[in-house]
From TrEMBL:
NAD(+) binds at D45, G46, E47, Y48, D49, S94, I95, E131, R154, E190, K311, K335. GO terms for molecular function: DNA binding; DNA ligase (NAD+) activity; metal ion binding. Residues 612-692 form the BRCT domain. This is DNA ligase. Belongs to the NAD-dependent DNA ligase family. LigA subfamily. The active site is at K133. Its EC number is 6.5.1.2. SMART domains: BRCT (SM00292), HhH1 (SM00278), LIGANc (SM00532). Gene3D superfamilies: 5' to 3' exonuclease, C-terminal subdomain, 6.20.10.30, BRCT domain, DNA ligase/mRNA capping enzyme, Helix hairpin bin, Nucleic acid-binding proteins. The gene is ligA. It catalyses: NAD(+) + (deoxyribonucleotide)n-3'-hydroxyl + 5'-phospho-(deoxyribonucleotide)m = (deoxyribonucleotide)n+m + AMP + beta-nicotinamide D-nucleotide. Zn(2+) binds at C429, C432, C453.
Length: 692
């Protein structure tokens, strides 16, 4: 489907119009079926709306071609086989969408209402109830004798689906009403899914190998229309009330409210969630302001809204205006520019992030979406790309919502005109040429060029300088930016060649701080081997592993030469960690950086290897928690490590001992629950001296 197909040009003849109308109707019916019945839209809403409006325009131009079965004349949707049909006591209608997206939408609505009410220019502004337009699905909740007896979807407006079994599981929907509610009441509102719930659900679906949903509306509709209530009960659904259907008439003691706003406040009092943004707006200006305010607030909302709805506030005047075929005359929906659009993938590029992750990015034919022109959209990783089946030349749906980076949601199916080869991740980093690796079980591809790769340079420098690594005080983010962006240094080793004068010329660096940094650099020249290994930023090598490696091998050269088998002899080093250490040192670039550091005078303190097995606490894992009477946490840890123990941060079944001091918290509780041996400081000394 080419997005330009439904252009504004006028067909040359009535015959041509008839052909286009037929094509549009068929297309809209197909899309509506996928959307309403299968809960799996095949195109973004913007695309559907454009075709719909084109059809409306053609039918207005050639009224003789308009038929009652046209999608413009009826509410689309039908009953899913397996769900019981429900005939609505009062039809559930659609709402007319104002096509002008700018402020004029509100003004033309206000002008029409004033005209239809026969108001003069001198008459007071009309009062409206302005509400967010929630992006979910409409629900009719029927209460008899204040008990929820039935919940039904809109369906075709006349006949909906009975989904009571599922709606009962939505906690936000009251199952019974307070005593002051009328004997008969139908509440109408929107069942929707919050963004966070939607993302969690999709992650769960993916883990279970089930299909994920395109958007929260779909996920909500698909969940509500489950045949099995147990599935719906696991789906986190929410609800906002926005109106009523049939109810006990006022003369029989039914509700007496006079405005839409009062009606909503009453529903709220009876326990229904009502959107906090609902406002009374007087005249077109206040509608325009509401539209603008909500447009700004929209990005930060926990749930999706696709526009706002303006309703005549007076229920009596609403009644006077009544309905046209499928829409009330007294309400209009004013949408926001679509956050999803269709465009073409012109290429797939690979970007390398600060941490070495390779991200495939779709290069797009420019498209205006979510209020900006988008030319690139992320495909996240190779697995996402494959799951979405994106290839160069495809028509894809692009989403840009708020400040979130634009992403490719999926391919518009059936648009691939000819064969295009599948995308493959490059074998070497497009920035530095180092090998690209992916760890087993991981989705991300990474550049293994660590220290060498310009894309990772800043991150590598910051990590190198950090407190637990080389501890170079004063080398922070701002400075690293200047050093790298200014082309002053390219690698780690060049840090040590920086003169104090050179440093003093940098922005926001006085002579004093330049000297301090210079001194910090000099101080860092004799790190422990463990710190040095950790500072290299080898993937999967944290502080603890660095210490294990240092203790086991004693010398840097031995670590660099070790193959994966040798590496796996280090306690706690498994195949994945061994592989990433080996790959790191197998890259000539990385070896060069290490050599350059040594040449620049950095000398890790080396020792004879002490194979852990020969030490008293070899193979033991100890967790420290709370405040010991005399030893600090660091001192206790150092003593334990010197005796061959591994000091871990969290308690598990594998923990050998827990050393607990004053104010020990959850770790102690967990240790006791697991039945582990808990020691105090005296117990720690006993352990170290082999008296335990
Ligand atoms: N992508 C597709 O293939 C596809 C296909 C069919 C329809 N659609 C989309 O569906 C929509 C048209 O469907 P429609 O006829 O159901 O109309 P609609 O969804 O635009 O408007 C009517 C609905 O708005 C909802 N609503 C939300 N907040 C409301 C409020 N405060 N007060 C009253 N109602 C509120 C109700 O559920 C009501 O049924 C369009 O947005 C269209 O893009 C998309
Ligand atoms: Zn690289």
């Amino acid at each position: 489907m080419n997005p330009e197909t439904f252009s504004v040009q006028t067909p040359a003849s009535q015959a041509q119009a008839a052909i286009e109308i037929d094509a549009l109707k068929a297309q809209l019916r197909r899309w509506a079926h996928a959307y309403y019945v299968l809960d799996a839209p095949s195109v973004p809403d913007g695309e559907y709306d454009r075709a719909y409006q084109r059809l409306e325009r053609l039918e207005a131009q050639y009224p003789e071609l308009a038929t009652p079965d046209s999608p413009t004349q009826r509410v689309l949707g039908s009953v899913l086989p397996g769900l019981a049909p429900v005939r609505h006591a009062l039809p559930m209608l659609s709402i007319r969408t104002e096509t002008d997206t700018e402020a004029s939408g509100a003004r033309s609505f206000d002008a029409r209402i004033r005209r239809e009410l026969g108001l003069q220019e001198s008459d007071a502004p009309v009062e409206y109830c302005a509400e967010p337009k929630f992006d979910g699905l409409a629900m009719n909740l029927r209460y008899e004798e204040r008990q929820l007896v039935q919940a039904a979807t809109r369906g075709d407006g006349e006949v909906g689906e009975d989904v009571t079994h599922n709606v009962r599981t939505i906690r936000q929907i009251p199952l019974r009403l307070p005593a002051d509610a009328p004997a008969l009441l139908e509440v109408r509102g929107e069942v929707y899914m919050r963004w966070a719930d939607f993302e969690r659900l999709n992650a769960r679906q993916q883990d279970a190998g089930d299909k994920s949903f395109v958007n929260p509306r779909n996920a909500a509709a698909g969940s509500v229309r489950q045949l099995d209530a147990r599935i719906a009960a696991q789906r986190p659904l929410s609800f906002f009330a926005y109106g009523t259907g049939e109810s006990t008439p006022p003369e029989a003691g039914g509700p007496q409210w006079t405005t839409q706003y009062a009606l909503l406040q009453q529903l709220k009092a009876w326990g229904f969630p009502v959107a906090p943004q609902v406002r009374v707006a007087r005249g077109a200006d206040e509608l325009v302001a509401f539209h603008a305010t909500m447009g700004t607030a929209r990005a930060a909302l926990a749930y999706g809204i696709d526009g706002v709805v303006y309703k005549l506030n007076s229920l009596q005047l609403q009644h006077r205006l009544g309905f046209v075929t499928r829409e009330p005359r007294w309400a209009v929906a004013h949408k926001y520019p679509p956050q999803e659009m269709v465009t073409t993938v012109q290429g797939i590029d690979v970007q390398v992030g600060r941490t070495g992750k390779l991200t495939p990015v779709a290069r797009l034919a420019p498209v205006f979406v979510g209020g900006a022109t988008v030319t690139n959209a992320t495909l996240h990783n190779l697995f996402e790309l494959r799951r979405k089946r994106v290839r160069v030349g495809d028509q894809v749906i692009v989403r840009r919502a708020g400040d979130v980076i634009p992403e490719v949601v999926g391919v518009v199916s059936g648009t691939r005109a000819h064969y295009t080869p599948n995308f493959h991740m490059p074998r070497s980093c497009p920035v530095c040429g180092s090998a690209v690796v992916r760890e087993p079980g991981q989705t991300d591809h990474r550049c293994s060029g660590g220290l060498f790769c310009p894309a990772q340079r800043k991150q590598a420098l910051l990590h190198f300088a950090s407190r637990k690594a080389m501890d170079i005080e004063g080398l922070g983010e701002k400075l690293v930016d200047q050093l790298v962006d200014g082309g002053i240094i390219q690698g780690l080793a060049e840090l040590y060649a920086l003169g104090a004068e050179q440093l003093a010329q940098l922005e926001r660096m006085g002579e004093k701080s330049a000297q301090n940094l210079r001194a910090a650099l000099d101080r860092s020249r004799h790190p422990s081997l463990a710190r040095f290994l950790y500072a290299l930023g080898i993937r999967n090598v944290g502080e603890a592993t660095a210490k294990d490696l240092a203790r086991h091998f004693g010398q840097l050269a031995r670590v660099m030469q070790a193959d994966t088998d040798r590496l796996m002899q280090v306690p706690e080093v498994g195949p994945i960690v061994a592989e990433s250490i080996h790959t790191f040192f197998a890259q000539p670039h990385n070896r060069e950086v290490v050599q350059a550091l040594l040449a620049a005078g950095v000398q890790p303190q080396e020792a004879e290897p002490t194979p852990a097995a020969s030490l008293a606490l070899a193979g033991k894992t100890v967790v420290l928690t709370g405040q010991l009477p005399t030893l600090t946490r660091e001192q206790a840890g150092a003593l334990l490590e010197a005796a061959g123990a591994r000091v871990a941060g969290s308690v598990s079944k594998k923990t050998s001992y827990v050393v607990a001091g004053e104010d020990a918290g959850s770790k102690l509780v967990k240790a006791q629950a697991l039945g582990l041996t808990v020691l105090d400081e005296a117990g720690l000394h006993a352990l170290l001296e082999g008296r335990l």
